[in-house]
Amino acid sequence: MHTPTRRTLMATGGAAALGGALTACSGGLGGFGGGGDGDTTTILYGWWGSPEKDEALFAAIDAFNAANPDVVVEGESTPWEGYWDKLATMSAGGDAPDVIHMSERYILEYGERDALLDLRSDDALDLSALDETVVALGESGDSTLYAVPAGLNTFVLAVNVGLFEEAGVEVPDDTTWTWDDYYAASQAIEDAGFVGSNYGSGIESFRPWLHQHGETMYTEDGTAAGFDEATLSSYLEHLLTLRESGGQTADQVSEGAGMPIESSPFANGQVGMTWMYSNQLGEIAAVDDSDMKLMRIPSQAGQASEAGMYYKGSEFYSISAHSDEDQQAAAIRFVDFMVNDPEALELAGMIMGVPPNTDAVEQTESDPGEMDQHVLEFVTDLADDLTVESPGPSPIGSGNIQGIFDRECLELLYDRITVEEATSNIYSSINSELG
């Protein structure tokens, strides 16, 4: 029986406390780890979890511990909704996990405040099997490596093929479909008594729209929005078009906010299409045994190469800069195991995305399941259609932008504000957060 936590902390600080707190962190972990009986080093690995992910990661921890008797890795899982407040509180107290599960949104937020170890500072972490562009996903502007990807994914539309068949609607060809085709499919699903589609995840579904218009989310220096207000307005108009074409009601959006994806209406067979990360399909498939598939994002002219999609580091491994030397050395060995060892990759599967070490994936002993194989093939085959460079870590100050975007879009869907008001609110808020 696994014990997920070694201590209980109340999340009180939040991400807003991060700025001044991290610079005051003291070294070590308050006497925990690195000590033991002198023969072992104990470290903590903390991540945001789900039942399927927790099972996979605890299995990988067990495998590492069995093969490395001089190191004990303990695991601590926290739901996404509380993870970042908890991590900020732990970091402020000098008690961050030794191995930190990291999102690209917060890599620079933590790294530039000296909370994360430069992973190139120790040759024990072998990055030779990873493509340089993949490694760069965890780099700062000066090439300091604050995080290494645990997996690759892309933001996509997913389709419940079984629901489409029940509704008598043909699944569109995702290599040629346009936004109008998307609206038409959503409307046809609603006409059959279901919800056609959800709206996506704020800025993540906004990014491809920007790329299709030749713009980016942020300026190159990360100090302001990288797009015109007119492009943002066109995206918000798109949301209203979808609302009138089988999209969720504002109440349905509000009810689903913060809901785990495995509990979502799509996972429970109530919605025909959903916006999601490619690695999340396995969690959904574990709930609903319907035939599901990943789809490319629609484009303006029906050209897959113009869809504006890109590879993204789905999740990352970072190491605390404030753990002691023994703990950091043990943490590096563990991260190396998770990135490069075929056994670790086999146990984790596609739960965190497509493993970036493709050589190690080929050395795994068992074949992936049907859904994992679909995700692997989709993400791999997508390479031929990618014309957008993968963005690096989000700029400092961007952590609140997702919430701002979601809030304003919900107000728009409720008709409490106009497109013009939502555009002004989002645009000014982004520049205020980054400025």
Helix-strand blueprint:
Layout: H1 18-21, E1 41-48, H2 51-67, E2 71-78, H3 80-92, E3 99-102, H4 107-111, H5 132-135, E4 148-153, E5 155-160, H6 161-167, H7 179-191, E6 195-197, H8 203-212, H9 229-243, H10 250-256, E7 271-277, H11 281-285, E8 292-295, E9 312-319, H12 325-340, H13 342-348, H14 358-362, H15 370-381, H16 401-413, H17 419-434
Parallel strand pairs: 1-2, 1-3, 6-7
Antiparallel strand pairs: 3-9, 4-9, 5-7, 5-8
Q: What's the count of strands? A: 9
Order of H and E elements: HEHEHEHHEEHHEHHHEHEEHHHHHH
Largest sheet: 5 strands, mixed
Poorly predicted spans: 1-36
What share of residues are in beta strands?
5-15%
Question: What structural category arises from helix and sheet content?
Answer: alpha/beta
Over all CA atoms, what is the radius of gyration?
Answer: 22 Å
> Which term fits the overall shape?
globular
Distance between the termini: 48 Å
Mean pLDDT: 88
- Please report the number of helical segments: 17
Helical fraction equals: 25-40%
Features:
disordered N terminus; single chain; four-stranded mixed sheet; five-stranded mixed sheet; 435 residues; 17 helices; alpha/beta
Give a structural overview:
- With 435 residues, this protein is of the alpha/beta class.
- 39% of the residues lie in helices and 12% in strands.
- The chain is built from 17 helices and nine strands.
- The strands form two sheets. Strands 2-1-3-9-4 form a five-stranded mixed sheet.
- α2 links the parallel β1 (41-48) and β2 (71-78).
- α16 runs antiparallel to α17.
- The longest helix is centred in the first third of the chain and has 17 residues, at 51-67.
- The radius of gyration is 22 Å and the shape is globular.
